[in-house]
Write a structure and sequence with these properties.
This protein is α/β, with parallel strands linked by helices. Helix content is 52%, strand content 12%. The chain has helices at residues 2-24, 37-47, 72-81, 96-107, 112-115, 126-141, 155-163, 183-192, 215-228, 246-249, 251-258, 290-308, 314-324, 326-356, 364-368, 380-390, 410-440, and strands spanning 54-55, 119-125, 147-151, 168-172, 174-175, 180-181, 198-202, 231-236, 264-268, 280-286, 373-375, 392-393, 399-401. The strands form four sheets. It has a seven-stranded mixed sheet. It has a two-stranded parallel sheet with strand order 1-12. A two-stranded antiparallel sheet has the order 5-6. Pfam families: Aminotran_1_2.
Length: 441
């Protein structure tokens, strides 16, 4: 009997060993994910031991000494809520007070839409979470639809709608030759899209190009959207941070509202309040009436429930405290203008430094663009040279984060850009001259 038990146990151990080997092979087919292009730049920068290294790849504000900033209005708000902060769950829709104040920023302090309760608004995990909630909402309630996304756009937009399983199309946006807006091609794409299409639009400070339509162009876009019955979903990650004026930065949204559009909007406080790690934002959808808004909000909450159940409380308390207090809001408006003005000042300094070096290329696009990012027009090969020879780090599409430019490094950056772009620029310059000569002859 004992022998049989030993034999049986041996078989069990062998069987268990086989099961363990089988279980250990479950994930053998999983390959490492490709590195995020932006986070990869930061990793390479941190590993560089050069004293001259410069990081103009990170999408977070830095002061003129290259240091992260916590706004004074945030510090004061933290002191006010300290000791009073509750650790209970927020509702699935988040902080009602934070959402109310956030809607005022996007839609206007005295918006009739807010008074009539026609907006379904929920707190989201910053702008990324707001976009993802909307993408899932679109898939669930308009499963036949696609999303038209500008070329180029923030890379994560593509991931968000892909993972929500919404088919994607693109529309023209950036014009590489002029380094500005390809407005004619954009309008053609809007006109040629099937009626009732969904479009993703950047409300201000387009990422990554820094190229925004003018007010008149926004009016034409809105008019054509109405003619085609398109739905506009605005990602507004930089309100106030682009121009220093939140009202001016919301102008595109206000134009669409004036034309009677029922839009969607993602908002974030990462950039304009420096609350990057707090992940506080808002998703809102304009509806026909209060009844529809209640229904839409309930469905947004249901989508959020299996994702993350409810959003975090601390960042929402900071935002609602700042925006609901006149003195703190005034201080925030002052501080966000200081940040925006520093970025604008660095654009001017970089352009002037390049022009003083005698570059034959035009650098007007540096100051024509707006917001944190400058689409420099440099090729991936030129960006590689900047990294290898000058220890300057940026994404290979030539996008410069102007937040990484300071009075201390702008001259070094300009010299390096001039060095890597001059040869190609000189050839281009000569080619234009020769073409002009033959045209004349």
């Amino acid at each position: 009997m004992a022998g049989k038990m030993v034999f049986s146990c041996t078989i069990c151990r062998k069987s268990a060993g086989n099961d363990l080997r089988f279980m250990s092979s479950w994930w053998n087919h999983v390959e490492p994910a490709p590195k995020d292009p932006i986070l990869g730049v930061t990793e390479a920068f941190l590993a560089d031991t050069s004293p001259n290294k410069v990081n103009v790849g990170v999408g977070a504000y830095r002061d003129d000494k290259g240091k992260p900033v916590v706004l004074e209005c945030v510090r004061q708000a933290e002191r006010r809520i300290s000791g009073n902060e509750k650790m209970e769950y927020l509702p699935m829709g988040g902080s009602v007070k934070m959402v109310e104040e956030t809607l005022k920023l996007a839609y206007g302090e005295n918006s009739d839409l807010i008074k009539d309760k026609r907006i379904a608004g929920v707190q989201a995990l910053s702008g990324t979470g707001a976009c993802r909630l909307f993408a899932d909402f679109q898939k669930r309630f308009r499963p036949e639809s696609q999303i038209y996304i500008p070329t180029p756009t923030w890379a994560n937009h593509l991931n968000i709608w892909r993972d929500a399983q919404v088919p994607q199309r693109t529309f023209h946006y950036y014009h590489p030759e002029s380094r500005g807006l390809d407005f004619a091609a954009l309008m053609d794409d809007v006109k040629n899209a099937p009626n009732g299409s969904f479009f993703l639009l950047h409300a201000c400070a387009h990422n990554p190009t820094g190229v925004d339509p003018s007010e008149e162009q926004w009016k034409e876009i809105s008019y054509q959207f109405k003619a085609k019955n398109h739905f506009a979903f605005f990602d507004m990650a930089y309100q106030g941070f682009a121009s220093g004026d939140p009202e001016r930065d919301a102008r595109a949204i206000r134009i669409f509202l004036e034309d009677g559009h029922m839009i969607g909007c993602a908002q974030s406080y990462a950039k304009n309040m420096g609350l990057y790690g707090q992940r506080v934002g808002c998703l809102s959808i304009v509806c026909e009436d209060e009844k529809q808004a209640v229904a839409v909000k309930s469905q947004l909450q249901q989508i959020a429930r299996p994702m993350y159940s409810n959003p975090p409380v601390h960042g929402a308390l900071l935002v609602s405290t700042i925006l609901s207090d006149p003195d703190l809001k005034k201080l925030w408006l002052k501080e966000v203008k200081v940040m925006a003005d520093r970025i604008i000042g660095m654009r001017t300094a970089l352009r002037e430094s390049l022009e003083k070096l005698g570059s034959p290329l035009s650098w007007e696009h540096i100051t024509n663009q707006i917001g944190m990012f400058c689409y420099s027009g440099m090729s991936p090969e030129q960006v590689d040279r900047l990294t290898q020879e000058f220890h300057i780090y940026m994404t290979r599409n030539g996008r410069i984060s102007m937040a990484g430019v300071t009075t201390g490094n702008v001259g070094y950056l300009a010299n390096a850009i001039h060095e890597v772009s001059f040869v190609g620029g000189q050839k281009l310059y000569l080619a234009i001259k020769v073409t002009s000569l033959f045209s004349f002859l």
